[in-house]
Amino acid sequence: MDTPAPPLRIALIGDRDPNVTAHQAIPVALGMAAEHTGLTVQFEWLATDRITADSPLEAFDGVWCVPASPYKSEDGALRAIRFARERQRPFLGTCGGFQHAVLEFSRHVLGWTDAEHGEVSPDSNRAVLSPLTCSLVETVDSIHLEPGSLIAKAYETSQILEGYRCRYGVNPQFQQDLMSGRLRAVGHDSAGDLRAIELTGHPFFVATLFQPERAALKGQLPPLVRAFVQACAEGRP
């Protein structure tokens, strides 16, 4: 008799708030993905101000940096993202997770030690995240996905429609330098603005400014969450 595989363990990086729509949606989305894939999925919320050098991040099969920033601890969020990037653990970042994935890459890969998030440090000379020209709070828009990207494979199409609750995105002043190497721009909205990124040389590192998890509250399995869960299963030791 085959021994059942142990449950997948996913770390949810963020400061849980029951009033945040995305935080309501994420457990539902993971449950739907688990049912669809036939996998047992366990998740644990890790408050950013509790993440330290001693946090047992290696115990998790995947890392999801969730919406609702600024976080209580920017350093805690960046520590978890860096762990996923360097240890090749599947990573999903949505909304604030997208923003902090960009910030972590800026500081620790590009060496921009002065890189800041414009929401926290608006006067910084290198605010790699800046206010959007048009706020994306409770809006829905189309996104074109780059063919062959992980996200396009997840959705099985190159044109999708997704919702946002966001006011900050990649600062156009730094976008070309940010996307000149391993970080790839893989999703753009109807105006051509950057809305999704991936990291080459990593099994699954995807971040979106939109919130795909919200579909779960409408009874729809979010394709990107399903792909993330599958990547966690495929990447486990």
Could you explain the architecture of this structure?
Strands 1, 2, 3, 4, 5, 6, 7, 8, 9 and 10 form a ten-stranded mixed sheet that branches. The protein has a single domain (8-235), classed as Class I glutamine amidotransferase (GATase) domain (Rossmann fold, 3-Layer(aba) Sandwich), CATH 3.40.50. 29% of the residues lie in helices and 30% in strands. The protein is built from six helices and ten strands. It starts with 7 loop residues before the first strand and ends with a helix. It is an alpha/beta fold and 237 residues long. The chain has helices at residues 21-37, 74-86, 96-108, 150-155, 172-178, 223-235; strands at residues 8-13, 41-46, 62-65, 91-94, 116-117, 127-145, 159-170, 183-189, 194-199, 205-208. It is globular.
What's the arrangement of secondary structure elements?
Layout: E1 8-13, H1 21-37, E2 41-46, E3 62-65, H2 74-86, E4 91-94, H3 96-108, E5 116-117, E6 127-145, H4 150-155, E7 159-170, H5 172-178, E8 183-189, E9 194-199, E10 205-208, H6 223-235
Parallel strand pairs: 1-2, 1-3, 3-4, 4-10, 5-6
Antiparallel strand pairs: 6-7, 6-8, 8-9, 9-10
Helix pairs in contact: 1-6, 2-3
Strand percentage lies at 25-35%
N- and C-termini, Cα separation: 21 Å
Q: Quickly count the helices.
A: 6
Looking at this structure, what is the CATH superfamily?
Answer: Class I glutamine amidotransferase (GATase) domain
Task: Indicate the overall shape.
Answer: globular
Q: Give helix and strand order, one letter per element, not per position.
A: EHEEHEHEEHEHEEEH
Unreliable runs: none
Question: How much helicity do the residues have?
Answer: 25-40%
Largest sheet: 10 strands, mixed
Secondary-structure class: alpha/beta
The number of distinct structural domains comes to 1
| CATH architecture title | 3-Layer(aba) Sandwich
Q: Work out the radius of gyration.
A: 17 Å
CATH class reads: Alpha Beta
Mean of all residue-level pLDDT scores:
94
Work out the number of β strands.
10
Reported by name, the CATH topology is Rossmann fold
